[in-house]
Amino acid sequence: MDKxxxxxxxxxxxxAELQELMSDPEIINDTKRYMAYSKxxxxxxDIVNAFNxxxxxxxxxxxxxxxxxxxxxxxxxxxxKDELNSSKDAAEKLEHEITLLMLPKDPNDDKNxxxxxxxxxxxxxxxxxxxxxxxxxxxxxxxxxxxxxIVDENSTEVGGYKDVAVMITGSRVYSKLKYENGxxxxxxxxSTESAGRVHTSTATVAVMPEYDEVDIDLDxxxxxxxxxxxxxAGGQHINKTSSAVRMTHLPTGIVVAMQDQRSQQQNxxxxxxxxxxxxxxxxxxENQSEYDEKRKSAVGTGDRSERIRTYNYPQNRVTDHRIGxxxxxxDRIMNGELDEIIDALIVNDxxxxxxxIQSGETKLF
Length: 365
Description:
Elements: H1 2-22, H2 25-28, H3 31-70, H4 74-102, E1 113-119, H5 123-144, E2 147-155, E3 161-169, H6 173-177, E4 182-188, E5 199-209, E6 223-228, E7 244-249, E8 254-258, H7 264-295, E9 307-312, E10 317-320, E11 325-327, H8 330-334, H9 339-358
Parallel strand pairs: 4-9
Antiparallel strand pairs: 1-3, 1-5, 2-3, 4-5, 6-7, 7-8, 9-10, 10-11
Helix pairs in contact: 1-3, 3-4
């Protein structure tokens, strides 16, 4: 804690400096600088306030200790002892809170996400499992008060998905769903299995933050756009014009095809939105892999080739292999009750970051 307290004193000095800068008329008139300072000040506010409370508690502990040493009055000693114990308990809790607040923050945690789910190994059963995962995340999003919109889908004849892309918007979506990146395995008896044998299939989940114009700027010269007629089952909404859009980012070879929207313009906007996230995710993953090689941590790496979780239907069990957590409540989890798993992954991630700080691998805030 001593190392953290030293850095906190420096942080308090910077916080005071920022408040002074933000009252400078010259900076107030410079919108860009003012916004940058405002964001920095806001990011520090909770930590500084917690540290100020911590210092008040330390003073209370010191004062109570002094009273106990200098007075012979039993009543005063009892009051001071109660105050001392209360302040020590509060300070201990606050130390933990401050430590968590000081952990390096993921800059994407506040962002909305684009999630892509694909049926992988297992044919029709894999596509059905992809649909089950889509339903699970939809129910979880509803419980969180988030908005859940399908933006592109490629369904199968059995009612599953070869692939489906959704946009989830709300408060701190990425901070909770970033741990879902990876291969999800299901063990169950498929509806098409006449002999009653348990099959193993997989579906992959990719979670990408939704990036704004300020985050990434794609050169139009690097994007090839093709338009074509949407395919579909027909009906009154069948497209009679070339409204479907396919965008290819030439440097990476990433392709986004969009035909789910009613007009070419809407398909263009959605395709560009997803393309930006995929391209940014591509470049970020390259950097992340270098970082993870040093850090050797599986949680939150976004490695989609690794099996992160198994859903065992015969035993009503879900196992997250990264943290060794098994829960015999698969039915509830598939109903969107993911909090227990996600909270455990967050705690594990925080624990690993604390270990890196203590070993000197990672700097604080």
